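Backbone shape codes:
===
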Amino acid sequence: MTKVVTLETPFAQADGQAFAAAAGEKVYSFGDYRLIPQRQLLLRGAFPVRIGTRALDLLQLLVERQGELVSKEQLIGFAWPGTFVHESNLKVNIASLRRALPQARSELPYIVTVPGRGYRFVAPVRIDLEQKPPVIASPVGLDNLPPPHDLFGREEDIAELSARLVSTGFLTIVGPAGVGKTSVAVAVARHVADQFDDGACFVDLAAIGDARLVCPAIASSLGAGGNLSDMLSGIVEALRGQRRLLILDNCEHVLAATCMVADHIRSVLPDIGVLATSREPLRSQFETVHLLAPLRCPLAERRLDRDEALAYSAIALFVTRANAATGFTPTDADIPAIVDICRRLDGIALAIELAAPRLASRDPATLLHLLEQSFELLNYGPRNAPARHQTLLATLDWSYRLLSDREAAVLRLLSVFAGRFCLDDVLALGLPLDIPTDDVARCVGNLATKSLLSTNISDGKVQYRLLDATRTYAAERLRQAGEEPAALASHAAFLLRVFERAEQEWHWRLVEDWTAAYAPRINDLRKAIDWAFGAQGSPALGLWLTAAAIPLWDELSLVGESRLRVRRALRVAESHGDGDPGLRMKLILAYAWSLTFAERLPPEGDEAWREGLALAQATGSIDYQLRALWGLAVLQSFTGRHRQALVTLEAFEEVIQGESDRSAAPDGERLRAMTAFYCGQVDAAYETFVRLAREHATVSHRSRIARFQLDRYVAIRNSLATVAWVRGEAVLASEAAAAAVAGALSTGHVVSHSNALALAALPVTLWNGELEAAQAHLETLIDNFNHRDIGIWGPVSRFFGGAIQHARGDEGGVDAMVAALDELLASNFLLRAPIYASMLVQAALDQGRLDVARGAADTALALVQAQEEAWCLSEVLRVRGLVEQRDGATEHAEQTLERAIASAASIGAHVFELRAAASLAELWTQLGRVSSAVTLLEETCGRLAFAHASRDHVQARKLLDRLRRPRIVTR
């Protein structure tokens, strides 16, 4: 049984006198707990429960109003009177309160949440008047444990470690510096207290610097006597006959001595439990080792709101510590920076604790920026912390001093890697370390054992990574040792070999496998290129590295990064006079693509494509000739020059005809058919896309994405969705658009995904009246645009945003459409601009804004004529006829609408034919020619019965039904 004694320390006596003076105050009792508000004290049995002041205030109000709903506002007002506090503070303190009131899983909780409203204390509460001061007790042997520390996200670790400690008797918690090993060990000791009748003894071995002092340190903590020469026997005698837990903290610098003592104690006293913490295992024959992972952080690709982020332990710790130190309360806008800070700190609890108070003088975004540059901010911690925890530098110095010379040299070298690496990568650096290969491998393994490298198994290979703080520290040591220039040059040369191999493998390796193999090296690639173009680098190496990296940037849709890095490489090539035509060809064509995806399409894009084509012809590269012709045709189509694009695509086909490799033929056929569709060949394009979709229906038929920037499977379905919708086949259009989006998501290629959204899914869902789906597609497109800098879709997304606003009845939608259309025209991105202008005409007429409608109608007609986009000429004429009708030019309106019907019927644009017929029928009805209107709609709807699922067909049928109803004539 746990022994209980009254505290006799001066503190306890003073506290007892205070209680005596306050006899008669209220005491709230529930379960095993007693709350004494006037003393700001919560007891469990005779033991005080450590809990924050705010949490204690919240508990007081909840207990006083037991069984009642207490709103969030009431709780905040009580705990933070007269202060504006965000709701997240309340959530954090309620969570802390729940952790302080643990219960068995089978029991009901003390505090329940009423979603969206507040909280309720549901346990029975008894109110007593205290007649004498409470006796505060402590178990013998536990009185030298460090005070408990608020832990975040460690509940499962503590439960698992407690069970393993009880079952094995000897457990070592291993992990990197600052991960929280000591705090977890103390929590485990408290959790298993009932298993050790004689309590626990905490021994801080960090305080000693000599292995010979391990036994004296343990004996001192136990209060054991004896002379130094026979200290171990004295320890054994002091523990004999007891069930006690011995906690040996920070053993890494005295491993051998600690292991010897622990082994001896376990062998002669099996009832004594041993719980050790260390940055590497003790390597005892009795120990069980547990690697303590850092706190949880969200994955890089996840986008979170505040509540979602706080569910991650690293974020919760940061926010709690920042609030306690500075009163900081995060907004949703702060969350991305806070998440990135915690990722930058690798979820290491100590680093987060050191970083959070820095918000006293800066916002999260500024703190993140500073931490990305240096960890200098974390070199000043609380003075009451252990010396090795007062700065981040101190924790790393502690580990570094324990390394052998060879281990330290290898650690310094490993700092050149920005991401994960394997042993082969280390050996491939080829640096003259004067260390045999076997010893390098042994040193890498030892560094992982000492928690200076994190490890991961992937594809049967062990991969390593330095935590960011460790990498920064080791890099500084590398610089101080004078080894940095050679190490970075070797790293860049190694990366060039890797990506030259990647460039070759790209032609035959499965895209998914290729990307999985090389995408993880993106940060190393960036680091190598930055070094190569830096003051101490190698410009020539940087040029070849940039060229070799282009396929990876394309496969990962890193459009903005590619543009910036390739532009820089071209400037360097010009200044250094590097005239290798193959190198320049790769760089100039990559730059041409970046211009084609930019928010503005300048004439410089044409020049880049043509220069790239000339270089490809000069070097005899058929592949790059095809890329150049394809890219030029895309740019010509984007800028409304469809006839020119068809000529360019004829040249594309001529190149293919002269080669045995026709792998690019389907891509050329698709782009040619889509360009012809814009010129009015709707039926022919439809037949082509149906066939291509059938022929390329599986993953095995997908092309190399980086070759033409679009996944073939996705691009075919993009085109089919648009053409099918124009023909009135709404179901097929929706299915094709959905398949395009799903296919793009399966590849992870953001450029393909954005094309599927902007050119298929978003317009089709909007035109079908599916506003919720359209809104979802729009938000995804905006997200892609923001994170990949695919500027071309910025004005398009803003136009569709305005169109959705208008469809939902928001009058501001028309103004948004006007502004976005102006942006599109100014940027020279004219693809589909006539249909966008027509959509604006209809929206403006819906709102009675005839001036806007007139201007947009003129713009639409001018664009459709200049660009020869015959596919939507009917719709342009229809909305122009509506404007003429509003202006009172009825005869002109009738003629224009008849032209619209004829135009659509002649090319198979059946949706536009239905729209024009319905508009003309409405006009005739207003003129009293109801029978003519009915005849027109009957003939059109009957002939286009296959389009019955389209929204426009449904609306035309409704109009026909309305016109057929007998009219009641009043006299």
Q: What stands out?
A: Residues 306-392 form one domain. The CA atoms of residues 722 and 760 lie 6 Å apart.
